[in-house]
Amino acid sequence: MKIEEIISAKSKKELEEIGTVAEIVNVINHAIQPLHVSCDNYEKVLHTIKILKEKWLDFKEGPFTSKQKEMVFYLTKLDGNNREKCLGINDEHYENKKIAEKWYKNIAKYVHPDKLSNNETEAFIKLNELYNNLIDYDENEIDTEGDLHE
Q1: Contact call for residues 35 and 28 (beta carbons, < 8 A)
Q2: What pLDDT sits at residue 147?
Q3: Cα Dmax for the chain
Q4: I need a surface site. Which of 2, 15, 31, 121 has the fewest CB within 10 A?
Q5: Please, what is the Cα angle at 109 between 130 and 99, to 5 degrees?
Q6: Model's pTM, two decimal places?
Q7: Measured between alpha carbons, how far is residue 119 from residues 62, 116, 139 in Å?
Q8: Gyration radius of the chain over CA positions
């Protein structure tokens, strides 16, 4: 039994399939030592896992310590299709200004200069460039003959 298997469990039934409460608690305690948890039923184990996912870095999913760090990385370290994919940009963002604006505001709350250190403000600049590209694409529609209308 591995801690990853326990962490991914979403129900009492899934935990029961993994092992007994005592076995699961033993694996969790080994993973968080020197701390110690005590649970006597699967519901308490699920609650403990939920708390650990929120508070314990080793239990968080993904390689980023925060959503802000994740957005900064995507904006400053990736480019092209990889960046667009990771940031959730698709054809709808190019076709609909309201969708593009909603996307922009959602990302901006993580990378606004007021929330970042001075050396991370490049992320906000990149975000603005991406957003301007999204809305410019919509303004410069191409007609059926392929002529660009500005």
Answers
A1: no
A2: 45
A3: 71
A4: 2
A5: 50
A6: 0.54
A7: 24, 8, 33
A8: 22
Q: Which of 41, 129, 116 is nearest to 84 (CA)?
A: 129
For the chain, the residue count is: 150
d(CA 94, CA 45): 45
Give the pair of three-digit tokens for residue 71: 């957005």
CA–CA gap between residue 43 and residue 12 (Å, rounded)? 6
Which is nearest to 25 in space by CA: 12, 6, 4?
6
Q: Is 146 left (phi over 0), alpha (psi -120 to 50) or beta?
A: left
Count other Cβ atoms within 10 Å, centred on residue 43: 12
**Domain map (residue ranges) of the chain:** 3-59, 67-139
Token code pair at residue 36: 């110690």
- Supply the mean pLDDT for the chain: 85
CATH class of 67-139: mainly alpha
CA distance 49 to 7: 6
Q: Which helix (H) or strand (E) holds 140?
A: none
Task: Work out the average pLDDT over 28-51.
Answer: 92
